Every structure is written in structure tokens, then in C-alpha cells.
Amino acid sequence: MEKRTAQLELNTVIAREQGSNKNPLQDLYVPTKIEEFFNWARKYSLWTYPFVTACCGMEFMSVSSAHYDTDRFGAALPRFSPRQADLLFVVGTIVHKQAPILRTVYEQMCDPKWVIAFGVCAVSGGFYQNYATVAGCDRIIPVDVYIPGCPPRPEAVLEGIIALQKKIEQYHTTGKRE
Amino acid sequence: MPTLLPELKKILEDTYGQEFIINEALKELYAFVDKNNLFSLMEKFSTIHFDFLMDVTAVDYLLQNKKPRFEVVYHLFHTKTYDRIRIKVPVTEEIPEVASVYPIWKTAYFLEREVWDLYGIKFTGHPDLRRILLYEEFVGFPLRKDYYIRDEQPLIGLREVEANPTV
Ligand code: SF4
Which phi and psi (to 5°) does residue A154 adopt? Predict the structure, then answer.
């Protein structure tokens, strides 16, 4: 799909440069499937809801700042209402007192929705194996991509977002989440 | 301002008939105090400008087999002379109660709630002794050494975690 888009752009540029009188509209037709088209749109407009509870939040700030720029992947716009978000970032330690809140936030998000567990605390509880901490936010909500690290490097987060985009390509427009 | 501690030590030892130890390096006065004397002693400290209650915490000596089992520890600070006072109050397992110092220092409001939350030591005279870090549904006191550390008490039903297919 991107290949075709890129090729198209190239064609258009070449045609313009060479003063060709080829109808440019002709290049605007891209044969595709509706599912592929929707998923292509979805994967480049991930509106995120940052659920930030602990020290990983610092790393999340640096990832979303201009230096690493998650906007290149269309995942920079934070929405502070879960109803407007498609991507839930669980950033930091989740304790049992907070578990009902996280589940409520997840349930308020509209389908289609995805979840990224950011940092070992959210992935598995990390070194907090005790009475207060939930051992991994996947015990509360389904998680799509796990990013390990304490905290993860920004590069790891970007790789996680790319992995999620690959996953979104497989998503069924009409189907439900498995 | 010069340190108050040697003078204070003499007065206290005369009044209470027990030993108060000075740690020169830390500029600190240190003593074990009976819990019946605690409140009057603390009031005395506050009148001579020990105006900062730095911490209230507790220790559980279950594994050391020490009797009585708990100690409540108070740290005071003098904001003019920089003197410190550390008071330890032994508390038994059967009656885990000690007088609240909330009427003297308002900051005890949170500190004592934390000790109640994690050790289950009651502070008589505290206006609102509730859990502060954990939730009300929690049963038991997790920093007591007989609480098993991995004993979780979830508020909501947790999911079964399956192996996630790789992307
Ligand atoms: S993974 Fe490390 S950095 Fe992130 S919240 Fe846990 S302890 Fe903090």
C-alpha cells in the first residue's frame, strides 16, 4: 500500500517536472480493499490516552517530545478523555487500589482500541512482587504490545509503536477483538 | 544558636529518673520512653521549640523475638538550633495503642494514619484514624512481619493471563 502511494507520488513529481500532459487525476486511483484502507488510516492516527502513574512517565515525556517525536508515527496527540482515544498507554506501576480505575478507563474507550504496556512494571509488575502491586496490567485489561525496560529507551517505545502498527494492519474492520 | 541538648538531658533525667543518651555526631537526644509518659514529654518538647515532627514510624521485632513486639519511633527537629530528638515507645502486641500527638503537631495526622495503615497501631485521640495508602477493603497490616508479602487482595476480578502471540 505505501509502496503504491510512494510510487504514485514519484510519478506525479516526474510528470510535473517533465511538463507531461498526462491527466494527474488518473494517478489518484488506488485499487485497494476497504479493510486495508481503514487500517491504513487507523495506524497513522493513533490518538493516545496516557495513563501515567510512576517514574516511566518521565520517559514517556521524552518520547513524546520533539527529540524523538512520536508524531512521525501519528501517535503524538494525547487525548485526556478516554472516549476520544484509540491507544491506551499504561505507563508505570499499577497497584490494586488503582486497578478499578484502569479498567473503567479502558471500558470507556470506543472500539477499535489498543493497549500498550510501557515498562516492566506495567508488563509484569517488575520487581514489585508484593501485596500492593498488580503483577502486570494484562491481569486487568487485554494488552497488545509489551515494551520491557525500566524505563524503556525511547527507541524501544518507537519500536513498540511500529509493532502495534503492524498489528493494526491485520485488524478486521467489521470483526470484533478476539 | 548553641545546642540545648546537655541541659535538656539533665532536666529530663531528673524528672523521669531514666537515661537519655546524646549522640554528639548527629546532635541527637535519644531515649526509650514509657507510653504513659509520652504525651507529657512531647508537650514539653514542643514548648521549647521542637516544632518539627519529622517522622512517626514503627518497627516490628517479631523475628527478633523481642518483647514487647512493636516500637513506635518519633523524630523531632529544632528549627533554630538544629537539634534532633528520637523517642522510641515500646508497644505490646496485645494492646497496640499509644497516645496521639496530633494535638501538638498537626502533621501527625497523616503520619499516624500511615502507621495505623501498615502496622495496625492505634493512636488514641486521633480525630480520623483511617487507612491512608491502602484501601478500606484491605484486611490485615502488611508491614507486620507475619503478613505474607505476596498475599494480594484484589478489588476487582483479575483476568487469566494467556501467552500472547507475537506480532
Ligand atoms: S518500569 Fe521502572 S521506571 Fe517504569 S514505572 Fe516501573 S520502576 Fe519506574
Answer: -55, -35
* Beta carbons within 8 Å of B115's beta carbon, 6+ residues apart: B56, B57, B58, B72, B121, B123
* pTM (2 d.p.): 0.81
User: For chain B, how many residues are written?
Assistant: 167
**Distance, CA B143 to ligand 1 centroid (Å)?**
22
User: Is the minimum distance from the CB of A57 to ligand 1 under 6 angstroms?
Assistant: no
Query: Topology of domain B5-124, per CATH?
Result: Beta Polymerase; domain 2 (3.30.460)
Taking only the tens place, the pLDDT of each residue in B5-15 is: 888 888 888 88
- Torsional sign, CA A169, A159, A67, A127: positive
Please state, in angstroms and rounded to a whole number, the distance separating the CA atoms of residues A46 and A85.
8
How many CA atoms are closer than 13 Å to the CA of B90, on its beta-carbon side?
11
A100/B149 touch (CB, cutoff 8 Å), yes or no? no
- A64: cell is 513524546
pLDDT of the residue at A176: 52
Side chain identity, residue A134? V
- Taking alpha carbons only, the member of A156, A148, A166 closest to residue A62 is A156
The sign of the dihedral angle between the CA atoms of B62, B64, B66, B72 is negative
DSSP A9-31: HHHHHHHHHTT----GGGGG---
Residue whose Cα lies nearest atom 2 of ligand 1: it is A150
Phi-psi region of B144 (alpha: psi -120 to 50; beta: other; left: phi over 0): beta
